[in-house]
Input
Amino acid sequence: MPSGKISMEHGAGGEQMQSLIGDVILRNLTKTSAGKVGLSDLDDGASITVDKSNKFFEKFNISDKIELVMTTDSHVIHPIFFPGGDIGKVSVCGAINDLSVMGARPIALSSAMILPEGFSISDLEKIVQSMNKILEEVDVPIITGDTKTIEGSALDSIIINVSAIGICDEPVCDSGLLPGDKIIFSGFIADHGISILTKREGFDFSSDLESDVAPLWNMIEPILSVKTKDGKKAVTAMKDPTRGGVADSLNEMAQKSNIGIKIYEKLIPIRKSVATSCEIFGLDPLEIANEGKAVIGVRPEYAKQVLEILKKHPYGKDAAIVGEVSNEHPKKVILESEIGSTRYVNVPTGDPIPRVC
Amino acid sequence: MPSGKISMEHGAGGEQMQSLIGDVILRNLTKTSAGKVGLSDLDDGASITVDKSNKFFEKFNISDKIELVMTTDSHVIHPIFFPGGDIGKVSVCGAINDLSVMGARPIALSSAMILPEGFSISDLEKIVQSMNKILEEVDVPIITGDTKTIEGSALDSIIINVSAIGICDEPVCDSGLLPGDKIIFSGFIADHGISILTKREGFDFSSDLESDVAPLWNMIEPILSVKTKDGKKAVTAMKDPTRGGVADSLNEMAQKSNIGIKIYEKLIPIRKSVATSCEIFGLDPLEIANEGKAVIGVRPEYAKQVLEILKKHPYGKDAAIVGEVSNEHPKKVILESEIGSTRYVNVPTGDPIPRVC
Output
C-alpha cells in the first residue's frame, strides 16, 4: 500500500499527479468505463455509449449512434475574483471546455458549492451571476446543485464543483493525433495563470492583462463539421490546456497517440506582457494554465480551413498553426527556438502557480 | 442584492438553506431545466428528456421514452472514518441514492477530490477501496474524475464530490404524493448522524451503533415494477432523508405535493440506542441524517406488497409503514405520539449535527 503524504505537486497536473491517480485511484477501481472513453484514458472527460452494446440501454430502442460525455472539476482558485473573471466563470467554462474539446455539445451542468462560514453572500451572488452569463452565452442550463457550509476555521474560501453532460456522435480523443497533422493553438497562451499570479502578488506591471477564461463551445462547434473525403472529422484530437499548460497537454497527446510533436517558438501566440512576466518570475509560459484555449490536431490538408473558421470567432481570432505531428521521436514534444535550436518540452513536474483552477 | 455572511445554518438542509438557494442562486439563474425535473424543483436530482422535445437531441432518432437523471453532492464529513463507513462510501452511496429515489438506474459516476497538503496517501487508498466496494455492489463505474491539492492551512480534510447519471423512463418526484398514499420508512432512522456524533465526541455508550450508509438501488429497483391497474408506478414519491432527516424530507414532500402527511410515533423504526442518544443530547431523531434510507409514498392498495419486497432486501428488512397522506392540513406534517397527542413536525431550522455528509 502506498504511504506518504499528499504534497502540492500531487495536484499540479504533471507527473506526480499522474502517478497518484494511477497507483492510488485507478489501481483500486475495478469499474471505470461505460463507453468509448473511460477513467483510465485520463482524457478531459469520459463517455457513455447510448445503444444496445451498453447493458443499461438494452431495453431502449435507439437506432442512432449517440455518445454522452461526462466531465467533473472542482475549483479552489485564489483569489476568487481576478482580472477577466472569477471562480464562478472558471468553473462553468471549465466544464463546457472539457466537453467541447471532446467534441460534445454541453446539454446540462450541475453545481456543488462549499461555503465557509463567514463568506460574503453578496460575493456569492456575484459568482452566481457570472456563472449565469456563461450559461446564457452557450445556451446550457445548470439543472441540479448542492450547497454545503463548513466552519471558517476548516476552509479558507469557496469551492465550486461543476460536472457536466454533453452529447456527440463520436468523441474526439486526445489520443487521436496522426502523423502529418498540424497543431493549432486557438490563441495567446498563459494569460490565465499570469493574470492570477500578478493579481495575487499585487504586481501591476501587467495591469491590462486579463485571464482568458471563456467558454469554447461556440468556437469549436463549427470546426467539428469540417470532414475529410472519407467522412471523418478533420480534427483528430483536442485538449483543454489548463493546469500544466500546453506543455502538459502536448505531452499527453504525444504519449497517448504514440507520435512525436514539434512546435516552433516563433509561431506560438503569446502576449508581450505575458512573455515579460514569465521572464521576471522565471516561468515557462508553456507550463502556465489557460482557461479559454484549445490545443487542436487537424489533418494537414484541412488545417488552413479550420484555422480560418477559428479566426472568425472572437475567442479564436489569434489562433495559429504552431507545429506538426510526425513519426519521429514518438511520445516526445520538441520545441524549435527562434534561433533554430531544439529542446524537449518536458511534462511539468510541479505546479509553477498553485490554485489557478 | 442580499448582504450578510454565510452561517452554518445555510448548509443545514432546512429553511435557511432553502432561502439562500432561492434568493441568491435560483433568482440569478435563467437556464435551469433540460427535462421534467429542473433545478427549481429542488428534488434529489434533475432530469434530461432524451427525445425530439429536447433541442439537443433533435437530430437523433430515438423512439423510446428515456429520461436521464443527474445528481451532484460534495462531502465534508468529519471524521472521515466512522463506524460503518467513511467519506468515500458516503459519497458514492449518496449519488446512487439520489438517483435511486428518483427511480433511475445509476449508469455512470464522476469523482472529484480535493486533498489538503499532508493528507495521508494510505488513508486516500482506503477511501478509494471503500468507494470501489459500492461500485461493485451496484455494478456502476466511476468514469471520470478530478484531483486538486490545496495548502494544509486552507482546508482541514479531504472533500469529495460525486456526480452521477442515471436512466429511467419516467422520474419519481418528491411532489408525487396523493391523498390516501401510505408512507414507508425503509428502516431504522437517525443511525448515521448519531454514529458520527458519538464517534466525534468520543462517547462509547453506543459502541455497537454504526452508520446506515448503504447504496439503495438494488433495494429500490424491484419496487419500481409494482404497477397499478392503469399501468402507473404504485410508488408515487420517494426521498433520500440525509441532512435534515425524515423531518425535512416529509415536509418537502408535503409542500410540493400539496397534501398533508400524518405519521405515528409507535410505527417509526428506531433503535433503542439511537433513541437514548437523542434523549441525552436533546436531539429530535426525525431531524437527524440518514445515509441508507428512503422515505417512500405508495398507493394504499399496494403498500403491503411494496413493504414485503423491501423487507426481502437486507437494507429494507426493518422497513415499516409509518403513516399516510390526506387532504387534511395540506403542506403540513403531523406526528401522533405514542399516547395519542399530536404535534407538527417542523422543517428543521438549523443543523443539529454539522458535517455529517
